[in-house]
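hey m, so remember when u said the tokens were messed up on ur end? i reran from scratch. heres the input so u can diff it against urs
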Amino acid sequence: MANQSRQGQGGGGQGGGGQPQGQQQNGGESGGIAGAMQTAREGVQDLGRRVQEGVGQFGGRASDAYDSAREGLAHGYRRAEGAIARNPGSSVLVGFGVGFGLGVLLTVLLSRREEDSWYEKYVPDRLRDIPDRLRNIHLPESIARHMPGH
């Protein structure tokens, strides 16, 4: 009776179920591929779920950091606003000083150094040597004592 139940299930002899034995083995290989594909599909789905959870956690942390930074900046802005309201004159002077300082800094950084000065570029040669010629002339002692270098 045990033999009959095995044969009735198709697991027995050669012609059980009307298929030759070689075709049953191919069906078994096909089932192995399908099982491997199912396992791979489940692995990819699991990976997708983990990535989605990680992105969700990162988004939550980024949102918290943004909110914290926004609150900190708003608090600092309110403090600065209060300080300006209490000291308007000083605030204007500080603003002027900061602006002037930035202007000087940018001018120094962005301007090119000129090799010749304005004096050397635009004053004619005959006028440039006037100070030297005046030093070499003989002046009366009353004037010469007031001149530098005498």
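this time it looks ok to me. Helices lie at 2-8, 21-86, 88-110, 118-122, 125-128, 130-136, 141-144. if urs says something different then somethings off w ur setup not the seq
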